[in-house]
Amino acid sequence: MAAPSADRRIVIENAAIATVDAHDTEYASGYLVVAGNRIESLGPGRAPENLENVVRRIDATGHLVTPGLVNTHHHFYQWITRGLATDHNLFDWLVALYPTWARIDEPMVRAAARGSLAMMARGGVTTAMDHHYVFPRGSGDLSGAIIGAASEMGVRFTLARGSMDRSEKDGGLPPDFAVETTEGALAATEETVKRYHDASFDAMTQVAVAPCSPFSISTELLREGAALGRRLGVRMHTHGSETVEEEKFCHELFGMGPTDYFESTGFLGEDVWMAHCVHMNDSDIAAFARTKTGVAHCPSSNARLAAGIARVPDMLKAGVPVGLGVDGTASNESGELHTELRNALLINRLGAHREAALNARQALRLGTYGGAQVLGRADSVGSLEAGKLADLVLWKVDGLGHSTIADPVTALVFGAAAPVTASFVNGRQIVENDHLLTVDEDTIAREARTEAQRLARIAAQG
């Protein structure tokens, strides 16, 4: 979708503004001017007078304006397998669901992607990502279906093109027909990058190289994936240190823990981010800090699968880039990132640092600038600053759920999920009063339900 013309301005006034810039600048009542797809100016008080070509003025009284939320880990296809295996740990959950996931096809993936994206976008996500790693033979153009859904929704998007080459016969978890060959996975990943990746400042679609996890990929795929990502100049992503079972698996198979294993294959670095990172010792955190490897923190999924509490305060203190992730909606049925602001704060306070673990502004930073860092987009999104892309959200904080919380950032993070009055991506509004403007939500819900039922029937037939 084309960006709005640079000579057309939108003026937002009378808003509380949390910029999440390097100084955490905030305005109790301020303005923000959007010109085309960029933030032109912002500050306290009223907008400058005599602005030309103002096509819209928004009185944002009673609202908090923040950068759009950035999701750093997800599996869209799981939207059509929600509510299953609800009392399982990670390994048992994977064993229970892989036989179903191995039967997905292009229509299912398209419907699931639309559902996942719609739920996130409606709740303030402006930059999304999907780690898709299940490519059953004959299933169609799954990457194209996912990228098409994101384009239709109007969100900024990173496809982490995943892969698996270690099936049950090789000691992995996925069924044999759900994995690719090592060579096939690398070739398909390279083709996806060359076809879809846009390296420009205002890119709407980017692609990362993303082998799935230590227990579903070969060492060769991990090592060659890192080399491929660096040759193509794109980021890399995988799962790491999610459970104690994974740690045991890595020690038994590779003779070392997950972090040392990743480093031995070249899969640590400032161009890498890792999902979960729950079971990290001091040495692991130091390695991530030294290499500037990023972390996608998924608090609800970690709790849902009883994985544990990630050491986010220690990571942040060490200088590790950390963002927030929904994770697949088979392990986070709500599929909403704005609830992860609250969950990240509350769950981390159950850990060793207790009430000093995270505060409201740190949680907001995780969900905005931290996520942009992890995805390699911090120069263009993640904070409200002149010259950055116009990805921003107006949260209503003067209604029933928030009006008695004086501080708007505290209201957003500690309070109930705040209504989204408006969400802009690339200067284009995609949400108004909690409803999507680019797609029909009822149609998406109906189609996703139809495909979920079709998948359940196919899986039941074996």
UniProtKB/TrEMBL annotation:
Keywords: Hydrolase, Metal-binding, Zinc. NCBIfam families: PRK08203.1. Transmembrane segments: none annotated. This is 8-oxoguanine deaminase. The keyword Zinc applies. InterPro entries: Amidohydro-rel, Metal-dep_hydrolase_composite, Metal_Hydrolase, MTA/SAH_deaminase. It comes from the Bacteria. The lineage of its organism: Bacteria, Bacillati, Actinomycetota, Actinomycetes, Kitasatosporales. The keyword Zinc applies. GO terms for molecular function: deaminase activity; hydrolase activity, acting on carbon-nitrogen (but not peptide) bonds, in cyclic amidines; metal ion binding. Residues 64-428 form the Amidohydrolase-related domain.
